[in-house]
Design brief:
Order of helices and strands of chain A: HHEHHEEHHHEEHEHHEEHHHEE
CATH topology of chain A: Heat Shock Protein 90
Largest sheet of chain B: 6 strands, mixed
Number of helices of chain B: 3
Strand order of the largest sheet of chain B: 1-2-3-4-5-6
Number of strands of chain B: 6
Helix content of chain B: 25-40%
Order of helices and strands of chain B: EEEHEHEHE
Distance between the termini of chain B: 47 Å
Radius of gyration of chain A: 23 Å
Oligomer: heterodimer
Largest interface: A-B, 36 and 30 residues
Shape of chain A: elongated
Shape of chain B: globular
Distance between the termini of chain A: 23 Å
CATH architecture of chain B: 2-Layer Sandwich
Structural class of chain B: alpha/beta
Largest sheet of chain A: 10 strands, antiparallel
CATH class of chain A: Alpha Beta
CATH topology of chain B: Transcription Regulator spoIIAA
Strand content of chain B: 25-35%
Radius of gyration of chain B: 15 Å
CATH architecture of chain A: 2-Layer Sandwich
Helix content of chain A: 40-55%
Number of helices of chain A: 13
Strand order of the largest sheet of chain A: 4-5-3-2-1-6-7-8-10-9
Structural class of chain A: alpha+beta
CATH class of chain B: Alpha Beta
Number of strands of chain A: 10
CATH superfamily of chain A: Histidine kinase-like ATPase, C-terminal domain
Chain lengths: 377, 135
C-alpha cells in the first residue's frame, strides 16, 4: 500500500508545475551527459529561447553560458564515471519573470574543491574591466589547467552574465563533493550590467532542493512550461539520443509522443490562453521501470469525459483493448481519434498495468489533470 | 497520372507515389499534430489512382515512429489500398525495426482488417545511430 501511495504522481506533478509562473519555463535534465545529448539539450533550450528572447545578443549570452556549463559537466563527469554509481550531473535552465538562471551540478573530487573555490572567488572579486584584463592575460601567457580551462570558461561566464557566479559545494562522502554552479542573466536591459553580490541565494537553495527531490524520485528529465510541436520534437530527440534503442525505450518514446501531444492539444493556460498550452512532463527511471508523468489544466466540464474514458480503458483486458482499437480504426465516422480514447487504448497496450490518473479541482473553471504510465525495463 | 511527392520533415513522413517509376512508398516518422490535414492530399491522390491504376502496385511502408492520430490515417490509406486491390494486383510490404514490438503489432493488426496481400518485413537496425558518436 505504501508503495502505491509513493508512486502516485499527482502531488509531485502539481507541486512541480506550480513552481513555474505563466509564460515562464523550467527545464531540467539529470543523468549522464554526452556530447550528443549536450547538442540536443542546446537545441531544446534554443527553440524555447527563440520564443521569449527577442534580442539576439541576450540569446547569444544565454547560449554561450549554457554551452560552457554543459561542457564543464561533461568534462568533469569523465573522472567520476567508473568510480561511483551516482554520477548524475544536472543541467537546468529556468526562465523567471525578469531573468534566466542556468545551473549545472556535478561531482568533483574533494581534493579539487579548494582550488576551484579559489578560482571562483577570484573571478567574483573582479569587476568588468579586471575580468577583461585577466582573460587577456591568460590568453597571452597560454597558462592552461590540465582540464584545458584555466578558469577561462568561468571568467567568460561571469563576463557575459554580468553577474557574480553563484556556487556551492555539497559534501557527499570522503572522496566526492557535489559542485553547483549557477549563473543569473537579467533579461531586461543590456546596459544594466552591474555585478551583484554573491551569496547562497534563494534560487540556489531552490535548485538544490529540486535536485534532491528529483533524485529521490529517480527523475531524469522534467520540462515545465508551454508545450508546442517544436519543443515536443526537441524533447523526443533528447530521449531518442539518450536511451539505447531497445524495446522498452521504443515504448517510452511512443507513450511520450502521446502524452506530450495531449498536453499541447488539451492543456489550458490559466489567465492567458494566448500563451499556448502549459503543462509538465517528467520521466523517471528505476531498476525495474520507466515512469512517465504528464500534467496540465483542463476545464472542469471536461473532467467527467476524461475520467469516463480512462476508467473504461482501464477496465478492458488486452483482448478487449485490441478489439476496441480495431473498432475505432474501422469506424468511418471517427474523424478525430483523440476524442475516442484511441491514445489511451494505445498507451494501455504499450505500458504495464493501468493508467494512473488524477483530477484536482483548482477553481470554478479549471482542474489539474495528471496521468502516469509505466514501462517495464 | 501525375506523381505525388512529399518531402519528409521532422514530424511528417516522406511520401512517393510515382506510377511512372512504379514506386509507392511512405517512410520516416509520422508524428504530426494534425494527422488528418497531412494525410488528406495523400488519400485524395489514392482515390484518383484507383480510377486508373497500374496492373500491379507494390506499396512499401517504412515508418519508424507513428503517433495514434497517424495510425488512424495510415489505416485509412490501407483501407483505400485494399479497394485498389480490387482493380490492381496490390502487395503491401510493412517494414519495421525488428526490436519494435509495437510497429510489428500494428502491422499484424492491419493484416487482420484487410484482404490485400500484406507482408511484414522486419529489419535489423544498426546498433548505433550515426550521430551518436560518443557511445
Amino acid at each position: 500500500m505504501i508503495q502505491r501511495i509513493e508512486k502516485r504522481p499527482h502531488k509531485l506533478a502539481y507541486d512541480l508545475f506550480k513552481r513555474v509562473d505563466n509564460g515562464d519555463f523550467e527545464y531540467i535534465y539529470r543523468g549522464v551527459f554526452t556530447q550528443t545529448l549536450t547538442r540536443k539539450i542546446l537545441g531544446l533550450a534554443e527553440s524555447n529561447l527563440q520564443k521569449f528572447v527577442d534580442k539576439s545578443s541576450l540569446q547569444n549570452r544565454i547560449y554561450f553560458i549554457m554551452v560552457e556549463g554543459l561542457q564543464n559537466v561533461t568534462r568533469h563527469q569523465d573522472e567520476v564515471f567508473d568510480q561511483t554509481n551516482d554520477n548524475s550531473g544536472i543541467f537546468a535552465i529556468q526562465k523567471l519573470e525578469d531573468k534566466y538562471l542556468i545551473t549545472t551540478g556535478n561531482l568533483i573530487v574533494n581534493s579539487k574543491v579548494d582550488s576551484l573555490k579559489e578560482k571562483l572567488d577570484e573571478v567574483n572579486s573582479l569587476d568588468r574591466d579586471e575580468l577583461k584584463k585577466l582573460h587577456k592575460d591568460i590568453l597571452s601567457t597560454g597558462e592552461l589547467s590540465d582540464k584545458g580551462g584555466a578558469g577561462l570558461g568561468l571568467i567568460e561566464m561571469a563576463r557575459r552574465s554580468g553577474n557574480k557566479l553563484l556556487f556551492d559545494f555539497e559534501y557527499v562522502d570522503l572522496y566526492w563533493s557535489y559542485f553547483y554552479l549557477q549563473t543569473e542573466i537579467p533579461s531586461r536591459s543590456e546596459n544594466d550590467f552591474e555585478i551583484k553580490n554573491a551569496s547562497l541565494t534563494d534560487t540556489m537553495r531552490d535548485i538544490k532542493y529540486l535536485n534532491s527531490l528529483l533524485s529521490k524520485r529517480d527523475i531524469l528529465l522534467s520540462f515545465n512550461g508551454n508545450f508546442n510541436q517544436n519543443n515536443i520534437l526537441s524533447l523526443l530527440s533528447i530521449i531518442k539520443g539518450q536511451m539505447s534503442l531497445n524495446k522498452a525505450a521504443k515504448k517510452v518514446y511512443y507513450i511520450m509522443v502521446e502524452m506530450l501531444q495531449n498536453i499541447s492539444k488539451h492543456g489550458k493556460n490559466l489567465g492567458s490562453p494566448e500563451e499556448g498550452a502549459s503543462g509538465i512532463f517528467f520521466l523517471g527511471q528505476n531498476e525495474e521501470e520507466f515512469i512517465l508523468t504528464a500534467g496540465n489544466y483542463i476545464e472542469n466540464h471536461d473532467v467527467e469525459g476524461f475520467r469516463n474514458r480512462l476508467d473504461a480503458v482501464n477496465e478492458l483486458d488486452a483482448g478487449d483493448l485490441n478489439e476496441y482499437f480495431n473498432k475505432i480504426l474501422l469506424d468511418q465516422n471517427v474523424i478525430d481519434p483523440k476524442k475516442t480514447g484511441l491514445g489511451f487504448i494505445d498507451m494501455r497496450l504499450k505500458c504495464n498495468g493501468k493508467l494512473e490518473f488524477d483530477f484536482r479541482r483548482i477553481n470554478d473553471e479549471y482542474s489539474f489533470y495528471t496521468i502516469q504510465s509505466t514501462v517495464k525495463i | 497520372m501525375q506523381s505525388l511527392i512529399i518531402k519528409a520533415t521532422e514530424d511528417t513522413p516522406e511520401i512517393i507515389f510515382d506510377p511512372e517509376n512504379e514506386i509507392f512508398s511512405i517512410s520516416n516518422v509520422s508524428l504530426p499534430e494534425n494527422a488528418i490535414e497531412f494525410y488528406a492530399p495523400v488519400l485524395s491522390w489514392l482515390k484518383k489512382y484507383r480510377d486508373n491504376p497500374l496492373p500491379e502496385t507494390v506499396f512499401n511502408f517504412n515508418i519508424e515512429y507513428l503517433n495514434t492520430a497517424s495510425s488512424k490515417q495510415v489505416f485509412e490509406l490501407i483501407f483505400l489500398i485494399d479497394k485498389i486491390n480490387e482493380v490492381s494486383d496490390v502487395t503491401v510490404f510493412w517494414h519495421y525495426d525488428s526490436i519494435d514490438e509495437d510497429m510489428q503489432a500494428l502491422g499484424i493488426r492491419f493484416t487482420h482488417l484487410v484482404k490485400v496481400k500484406f507482408e511484414l518485413v522486419p529489419y535489423e537496425k544498426e546498433l548505433l545511430d550515426e550521430d551518436d558518436e560518443d557511445y
